[in-house]
Design a protein that fits this description.
By secondary structure, the chain is α/β, with parallel strands linked by helices. It is built from 10 helices and 10 strands. β6 and β7 form a beta hairpin.
């Protein structure tokens, strides 16, 4: 397969990586978390400026780490959708410029397709079809992976994404940003059965509940009500127990829907991607439930769960090997469904 240098700047990580044949030759990630912590979340304009300051150094470091020069690079890629428009523009502009200067094919990559491909980096023999459980700060979806560029979304959250719910609950508990890692750590010290929290079912018009779609807004509100009740009574908020109960509820809800979806569609492999794939509670619940149904569950290494350029390069490498390239007129989009991936390669 092709050797691709990819740039990922969709949110608050400036990342550059080089991948060949699903093997990571280099991976550079410059996180902006310390910059955004003071605001309690990502500030788009600040993120864009940080990308501008960091991108050139990250590209140079990726080439140096891989011990490659531009003659060994077959294509140059960048995330073009979805994400923060200003942040995406930094990476896309850099990639297009490099493609022109070095006379290389250019590829725009869908961020969510990158998360699907993250599992390939540790499981190079994995091939479709399989079910992807994509759980990140901005997206929570169950995706039928049919082939490179061919995806069908079978289920998703109707409101907050799982990662977004972690961040909001962490804010309610005064735990800071980002919420996922700190809640995961606190949950190890708490009782996951201390509080009965709502799973977040989605009602169907004819009665019953959707098997694959979910909701985390009600769960977040339930935690808020508990915190308010403790404050009203002048009692100390049992933060560890609340964190453990919240995390267990999210893990159970995601697991229930993923297992049902895989069994209904006859898929024996579930590949998990996105930042929440690093959560220990989800890993434990899903592995345990999958083993009862003889299903295989694959998680990327922790370093490839959060946003990174290696997963973008892996997706781009597969597309380039199939002859897919993007026009240099390609722009960025803050929203683009996964079903429109091949739109990015219409020359």
């Amino acid at each position: 397969m092709a050797t691709v240098l990819a740039i990922e700047t969709s949110c608050d990580e400036t990342a550059v990586a080089i991948v060949n044949n699903r093997q990571v030759r280099s991976s550079i990630i410059a996180s902006q978390i310390p910059v955004h912590q003071q605001y309690g979340g990502v500030v788009p304009e600040v993120a864009s400026r940080q990308h501008l300051e960091t991108i050139n150094q990250a590209i140079a470091q990726a080439l140096e780490q891989a011990q490659l020069d531009w003659s060994k690079i077959d294509g140059i890629a960048a995330t073009c959708a979805p994400g923060l428009v200003g942040a995406l523009l930094v990476g896309l502009t850099a990639a297009k410029t490099l493609a022109i200067v070095h006379n290389k094919p250019f590829l725009g990559v869908h961020h969510l397709e990158g998360h699907i491909f993250a599992t390939y980096l540790s499981e190079p023999t994995l091939d479709p079809p399989f079910l992807s459980l994509l759980v990140s700060g901005g997206h929570t979806s169950l995706i039928y992976v049919k082939d490179c560029g061919s995806y069908e979304t079978l289920g998703e959250t109707r409101d907050d994404a799982a990662g977004e719910a972690f961040d909001k609950v962490a804010r309610l508990l005064n735990l800071g940003y980002p919420g996922g890692p700190v809640i995961d750590k606190l949950a190890q010290q708490g009782d996951p059965q201390a509080f009965a929290l709502p799973e977040g079912k989605v009602s169907l018009p004819g009665g019953g509940f959707h098997r694959y779609d979910g909701s985390f807004s009600g769960l977040k509100t339930a935690v808020l009500r508990l915190v308010q009740q403790f404050d009203k009574n002048g009692e100390q908020v049992p933060v560890a127990d609340l964190a453990a109960s919240f995390q267990a509820t999210v893990a159970k809800a995601l697991t229930k829907r993923a297992i049902a979806c895989a069994l209904d569609y006859g898929l024996n492999t579930i590949a998990v991607g996105g930042g929440v794939a690093a959560n220990s509670g989800l890993r434990q619940h899903l592995q345990a439930a999958a083993s009862q149904h003889n299903l295989r569950v694959l998680f990327p290494p922790l370093k490839f769960c959060t946003d990174n350029a290696a997963m973008i390069a892996c997706a781009a490498s597969d597309h380039l090997s199939r002859g897919h390239v993007s026009p240099l007129t390609l722009g960025v989009e803050s929203r683009l469904s996964l079903g429109q991936v091949m739109k990015l390669y219409e020359v």
